[in-house]
Amino acid sequence: MPVDSRVSQVRHLLRELLAGREDPESFFCFCVSILGHQETRVRFRELISPITYVHHQLHSQLLSIYQEYFLRDVDDELELALALSLVNTNQTSTQQPVPRSYAQLASATPAAPVRGHTQGMDTNISMGTHKTPGWTGKSPNVPKTPDRPKESVTNKTATSENKGKAEATSSLANDNDSQEKLDADNQSEMSRKSRRRRQRKRQQQLLKSPSSPRPILMWFRRDLRLLDNPALIGCLELGGPVIPLFLWNDQEEEGPGVTVATGGACKYWLHQALVCLNQALERIGSHLLTVKAEPSSAEVLQRLVKETGAGTVVATALYEPWLKERDEGVASTLQQQGISWQLHHSYCLRDPYTVTTQGVGLRGIGSVSHFMSCCQQNPTGAQGTPLDAPPTLPVPSTWPTGCPLEQLGLARMPRRKDGTTVDWAVNIRRDWDFTEEGAHARLEAFLQDGVYRYEKESGRADAPNTSCVSPYLHWGQLSPRWLLWDARAARCRSPKFQRKLAWRDLAYWQLTLFPDLPWESLRPPYKALRWSSERAHLRVWQKGTTGYPLVDAAMRQLWQTGWMNNYMRHVVASFLVAYLHLPWQEGYRWFQDTLVDADVAIDAMMWQNGGMSGLDHWNFVMHPVDAAMTCDPIGTYVRRWCPELAPLPDELIHKPWKCPTSILRRAGVVLGQTYPERVVTDLEERRTQSLRDVAEVRQRFKEYVDQHSGCDLVPLPDRLVEEALGSTGEVLRCGSRFLLPVITRMEFKHQTADPDKADGRGNPYNAVLKGYVSRKRDETIAFLNERDFTASVMHESTQQRERAERHHCLLEGLPASPSSATSRGRPRRTPSKDPYSIVPGGVAMPQR
Ligand SMILES: Cc1cc2nc3c(=O)[nH]c(=O)nc-3n(C[C@H](O)[C@H](O)[C@H](O)COP(=O)(O)OP(=O)(O)OC[C@H]3O[C@@H](n4cnc5c(N)ncnc54)[C@H](O)[C@@H]3O)c2cc1C
Questions:
Q1: Maximum pairwise Cα distance, the chain
Q2: Lowest mean pLDDT segment, chosen from 19-28, 48-57, 184-193, 808-817
Q3: Model-level ipTM above the cut of 0.85
Q4: Residue numbers for the site described as Electron transfer via tryptophanyl radical (predicted)?
Q5: What is the rounded average pLDDT of the residues 454-463?
């Protein structure tokens, strides 16, 4: 049966419901049975929207049933969902089918004004029927009074973030004509347009009337989207004309330390994203006002409030401590003048300031599993469902003055002496679509293809196996909630991929705990490490001319496109820190300046970990040649970014210095001319030196090494001290500091205990990865333990055999056998008794 006739059947049933001949739950069941699962999910809210006002209670009841039904999870997702607080914890999991991807819905939309996503979701989608598996026509198991997802708004009273487009905008429609609208809706396509016309008219009336509500300033920051933007929907719910606004102040963004918060590539992206946002707003009848926030955002907002008579400023919360502080200042200035300030949470899945370690403790802090346990143990309410984009925005009668976007200086290009421009962003433009639709297209493409290889092959640099949505997430052109919903709804649900959003939240949590994260090593001794000051080494790393093809390919990709995958970021970070001995901060700053997804929290967390001083410092070092076995086995990636090496054979392309002269000659490669010589040659020696340096500072700052477990100790931030001790600040007042043992590389523990063994090669815990280890951290550790165990068992049996041989020789008066003689002096691969295998206890200890 065509969709239209099924929809009219449902409308008929709605009349039956209104007449009292059906009950809400049966109505919903019929709806699922007639329309199928997906159609119901997409159309239900629109179908019931005509009764929003006249039958408000019934409408809410239906909406609750709908939300309850579609928020149910399948078992295998429950753990993650709970941890990320996607569902209410008191909901039990049932085997309900998961909704289809929003992005899929969007792509099925034929001619949506906002190129593809939401307009069509409520209205003109043509899709095949999707029958609920196992549907028996029985009522779905929905409670009578289901929980509504809580909303996450600061300074705000009861508004529902889970209202969709129809609800959000219907407040502008005439209350008294809902029955009329019900009939009008029967004319499907026509009705949408006429409803919009009515809404526009109503908006204009509102603006003209003397009692018009005051305008609302919608302050866009890192939520540059129309879809699933709770702040924007929050503006609509307030019911006044909305003035979309973007303010820019470099210093405020930068904060107190050296953060390079918005580097060149990121600024360029921002400029383009603002152009796109403005276009999207124009399509819904509005536009974006851009203003230089000088001298400060607070002062500019005050001016705008005066100029427009606005009564409320609405924004999405940002979590960098310095931006939070700025926002608190803005809020108090505005509130003193009677202007209300509303802050919505949608940048992360969890507001990092609400995450606590209560009930979990501090053991394993810094790891993603510890973080997820904290979220699971201390849920803060459900995230709710993603929101549709508003079809229209009420505009003010007069607009305040702004400045052209160009004047913000975000995409300024250097000029040559002859006056021509150096367009360094040409490849970035070629590679990326800066629109919100571009974000959804990337995600959709990934969920149809790359996600199938993500679990095992996300490290491949030569294949598009990851989502490439990081810059969109950073600028909020894609909400993490939307991403998670789509990922959960995809046919192949990769838990590893979903977990990445927990990583993202973890980074913000760490930044809120350690505001110095972007510039100060968390582990105090490592601040004193003997870092190299070889600027020439830094330059070759930055330019991609280290002479190591894999590293060079990645650094050139970064320079040209503003991006590289996670695995390659590990490779180049390891190279900088472990082999060039350059401080991690140099890497962080370069990344911040060149990545289009540069994100202070994530970048700083990852560089701290790579730089050995983060909470979860890497237990491995990537080898610049061996890593290619995993990420570029036949050299496709290197050939793309280092074309001068392209003719070399696969097996030698990652180590051209090993090439026989004849092959080099045939390939036209001259080392030192067409391709650089290696910046450092003895990698083993460099690594050994790095180990010695670590051992030296750990010896020197013994007070930061736990003598019992051998783990590094990190000063505990105030917030965690209070949580750990349940104290209300007493400890802090008397000035005591608390130290926390954190996960520490076995290699470091061993080296510190035995520093005289100058040759680091004797260290049994060599962290250099030989090829790919894609396992999860715990599995990796288990694997290493098992290997060690096997090694020690083998060693034991060899020793037993040798002992027996020695005894035999002794008894028979024979000379000692050569095998036993040589093996006696050989160093053990695994220490017989490992004093360092104790896992950090997670107990805060007063500093000795
Ligand atoms: C040294 C170093 C620096 C990094 N700097 C940044 C940065 O500045 N900005 C940034 O967004 N990511 C950074 N990452 C994390 C990661 O490399 C990128 O998020 C990822 O490569 C982006 O590609 P994607 O969207 O295809 O990721 P996918 O693998 O498809 O993951 C989806 C999303 O999850 C999030 N994510 C993935 N990995 C991580 C992670 N390890 N930590 C936190 N969130 C994660 C990102 O938002 C990403 O877009 C860094 C990693 C390293 C090793």
A1: 116
A2: 184-193
A3: yes
A4: 531, 584, 607
A5: 94
439 lines ligand 1 (CB under 6 A): no
pLDDT band at 616 (very low <50, low <70, confident <90, very high): very high
Report residue 405 as tokens.
């976007």
pLDDT band at 400 (very low <50, low <70, confident <90, very high): very high
Query: What is the C-alpha radius of gyration for the chain, rounded to an integer number of angstroms?
Result: 30
| pLDDT surpasses 60 at 411 | yes
Tell whether ligand 1 has an atom less than 6 A from the beta carbon of residue 606.
Answer: yes
- Which residues contribute to the annotated binding site for FAD? 454, 466-470, 497, 597-599
Task: Please choose, from the candidates 612, 576, 571, the residue with its C-alpha nearest in 3D space to the C-alpha of residue 694.
Answer: 612
Which helix (H) or strand (E) covers residue 246, if one does?
strand 242-248
Q: Do 365 and 93 touch, CB atoms closer than 8 A?
A: no
Taking alpha carbons only, the member of 739, 742, 750, 686 closest to residue 715 is: 739
Question: Tokens for 33?
Answer: 């049975």
How far is the CA of 35 from the CAs of 15, 39, 45, in angstroms?
A: 17, 5, 13
Mean pLDDT of 392-410: 96
Residues 796, 277: Cα–Cα separation, whole Å? 67
For the chain, what is the total number of helices (H) and then of strands (E)?
A: 36, 11
- 10 Å CB burial of residue 33 (0-12, 13-18, 19+) is middle
Q: Tell the residue nearest (CA) to atom 4 of ligand 1.
A: 603
pLDDT value at position 29? 80
3-class DSSP string for 32-78: HHHHEHHHHHHHHHHHHHHHCCCCHHHHHHHHHHHHHHHCCCCHHHH
> Looking at ligand 1, which atom is closest to the CA of residue 610?
1
Query: CA-CA distance, 349 to 86, in Å (whole number)?
Result: 8
pLDDT tens-digit readout, 538-571: 999 999 999 999 999 999 999 999 999 999 999 9
Cα(501) to ligand 1 centroid in Å equals: 9
Q: Which residues lie below 8 Å from residue 465, measured CB to CB, with a gap of 6+?
A: 450, 453, 454, 457, 458, 459, 565
For the chain, domains (ranges, CATH) are 1-75+85-209 (no CATH), 213-347 (3.40.50.620), 426-513 (1.25.40.80), 524-685 (1.10.579.10), 777-835 (no CATH)
Which of 82-96, 137-151, 341-355, 761-775 is predicted with the least confidence, judged by mean pLDDT? 137-151
Does the beta carbon of 614 lie inside 6 Å of ligand 1? no
Q: Which of 141-150, 276-285, 374-383, 714-723 is the least confident region?
A: 141-150
**DSSP3 helix / strand / coil % (the chain, rounded to 5):** 50, 5, 45
Say how many Å lie between the CA of residue 9 and the centre of ligand 1. 47
pLDDT tens string 252-295: 999 998 999 999 999 999 999 999 999 999 999 999 999 999 99
Report CA(4)–ligand 1 centroid distance (Å). Answer: 43
